[in-house]
Batch of 2 targets.
Target 1
Amino acid sequence: MHYEIVDFVIDIVQNSCEAGASLVDIVIDEDRNGIGFVVVDDGKGMDAAQAARALDPFVTDGVKHPGRKVGLGLPFLKQALEQVGESLKIESEKGKGTRLAFRFNTRNLDCPPLGDLAGMMVTVLCMPGPEEMRIQRNREAYSYLIRKSELIEALGNLEEVSSLVLLKKYVRSQEEEGEELWQG
Amino acid sequence: MARMTLDELRAFRDSKRQDLARRDVEGKDIQIVVGMGTCGIAAGAKLTFDALVESLQKRGLENKVLVRQTGCMGLCYVEPTVEVIAPGMPTVIYGKMTKEAADELVQKHLVEGKLLDNHIFDRPAADIVKK
């Protein structure tokens, strides 16, 4: 089971990448009562039957690992959301893409810790596959948008260690400003 | 504290590039691939990733190594796992990675050219073996 909220998000975005997405949009909406995520991709999508089966922990796509008998990413997320009285919304269209929306009620005692949001953004930005990834971060009145294409243009290859270090600094500084406003 | 702008980010990068140009820069033919499937994430692979980047920086190997991510490599029972591809060394998948093992990997495998014997796992999990 994943430990922090960011772990669930990383898993979901990895799914989008494995589905062959060329564009992934992530919106993070945070207020004093909770934090919501919307992840939209233009990957291969699922029909209604596949989408329903995707929540079954014993179902996986059968392609990635042909003999595998479990697919735990979505069931983990569904379980964690149920623990805080929330649910997972999946919309998908075969050949078009998938949209996942969920919200963690951070006031609930069973809510997992959020984890390092800046670190999560660096991780998903560096996932191979999508040419573009947009992360819209909203925290009450504070917000910012990160675009993978702009970062590649500024830094070059994100997989170089020197790029990774600068990337983390950049994202962290966006979060730090938000944190000051949040506390102030 | 004002947040960093894209221009500032570019400036940092350019100043680093100038430093690099002065040194003898070799091609980046060393790759470390970190497994970031559900199994890896649950086992703390992102911490392994961070530890590797930190160790590489500490030992001055930032210009020679690429650190990449992939999905599940089939060794879920010994996550976090990393695959190391380096010229002159066999390609190996290390499992049961920790922060200490990450540092050991950079020092022993990359710098000294020695394998980390107790971290080598080459047999994938039973449920993903090809039929």
Note: The radius of gyration of chain B is 17 Å.
Target 2
Amino acid sequence: MPVAHALASGMGGIRTAGDLVARMQLHRKMRLPQAKEYVAEKLGVGLDQLADEVSMRELREDLDIGVITAVPGAAKGLAAKSRIAKLLDIEIASVERLKEKMR
Amino acid sequence: MNEQEILEATAESIIAADEEKAVELARQALDMGLDPNRVIAQGFSEGMKQVGDLFERGQRSLPEVIIASEAMVAAVDILSEALPEDSQSKKVGVALLGTIEGDVHDIGKGIVATLLRVYGFQVHDLGRDVPLDDFVAKAKEVDADIVGSSALMTTTMLGQKALEQKLRDAGVRDGIRTMVGGAVVTQYWADKIGADAYAEDAQEAVTKALELVEG
Amino acid sequence: MKGGAITRHRTRMGDGRVVEMSTDEIRADIEAGTEDAADKGQIEPLTSDEQDYILELMTAPYRVVAVQPGNEVVLTDDGSAGALYGPQSSSGTGTPVSREQAIRVYERGFCLDTMEVGHPDYSFRPVKPIVPMEQQTIESVLQSTIIPIYYGAMPNLALYYDPDGPFGNPADFLPKAMIKEAREAQVQAAEVCRRDMIYISKKMAEVGADGINFDTTASAGDAEFLATLQTVEELANTTDLSIEVGMASEFVLGMHGELEYQGKRLAGMYPHDQVKMVEAAGAHVFGPAVNTSTRRSSAWNIARAVALTKACSQVATIPVHANVGMGVGGVPMSETPPIDMVTRASVAMVEIARLDGL
């Protein structure tokens, strides 16, 4: 069933900017239009590109914020999230914990 | 007040869960020489039906439904005294309820039990996670008119089908009406297993139970 | 499919069975569904344009429908990917993967925007004795995933009642008209449930969880809703957790009847009122749930669910992620929810109710 929803109406997760828009909802309680505008501005793209797999794939590679396929050397997990946190100007708890461990 | 006004006022007293008012109106109806059965059926019972409807809409809590039912019982007790002994309100029927073995959900079943009592059934509630043989044994013991089972999981609803067979094997199925309910249960399932009725919510359970005992 | 002069459309009932209905029948059901929502919830019915849109969806001759580009929403999932490794009772397929593997599949294979870790016995009470295991699991998941990861569980107040818990069971008291005892049991159990939920949530915050999801809230009625709201309030004030509250059904069952939060009676609240309580408590995301009626058509169910959810979304100041799973949000109550109706419910919810997520 998640696949059905993903096809019908989902943003696409890390295939696109879905996780980034989700973070603005979770962290800042932004409703969808506001969250999309915020992310689009941070990424320097138009709203219509946020769920576009092709342009977002290229952008995610360029920004090294994690892509859906397993690219050796590309940022994954915490590395990707630390770059996302910086990009979106938010704090991600697991990233903050890593920073504490590194001190 | 004329008769129609009395009937409307009795219904309102139940909706308001005002036992004192309900009793006062019951006495007033008797003083006016009104037919007690008519006052119960078209007055107080109508009020109780509306309370049930309000409950299904979320506008009454379950305790409020119980308090309303106590007002009704008090009023009906007054009116029943004026009825010939052989026509005084008897229990509507005997209902046996339980959640199928392996399933521990019982809030919905508890609400059904409450409402059936409110509507005059003698209710025996076996609780949750009830072995099928216990349903059969208790049904025989209390001479149940209705056996109602609840299942909230697709795994446990199979027990409802098995229960139908157990009742047949025990030779009691013909004298019993079965009802099924629960989040995963549907009319299609009830038809498939040969249950007599399916209810989607508590108020419908009461309606169906009344139809089954009257039919 | 055509039958003489009247076109009949392949559609479904709320239990998932295929039926054929004419355009007029579907239209009538859409109208009836929205009227039912308006009547029960005391809200505005859907407009005629909105009903026409649902009709368009329901009569579209395609297996799958989808939103217009640009209208995509955030997609989340609860149940900790139990649909992969869980048994039938979790609507699971019994695929032999670990929770961590399952969540990675959801992130990469199903393209969810957020996910969650949860106990296979998906309630807060069973988690308490094994909190370190849950912490370790979510901590490990957080190392390797990119999408936000919640810890999710159900408040499930019923587990605090006899026979599973230490308190008397209201479902036993109420049929015997023992109202005082029933209410006391609920209040006492709610307090212990609240403490457990706070304890577990803070433990998850310690290891870096992005958020906490209170799933199927108020399944045991108003006392459970109150315990959850009080928990949210505490967590919002003392942690950085993102907090989601997802409901169990469209109105809060009045098992107690007299409980209030911030001066508002909780029993009987519909989604547009529930969301205001959740906002006031400090939550970040709200998930309304509207139950599917198995004896009504999908058209009726979808119209009704959308109407109630739209009313909620219109007044919300936090993101609204409607529950659109098995048996809720217009989706048929079927162990294998049919894709055609899942997508129709999905699109109707997004395009009309203007949701922030599903």
Note: The two ends of chain B are 36 Å apart (CA to CA).
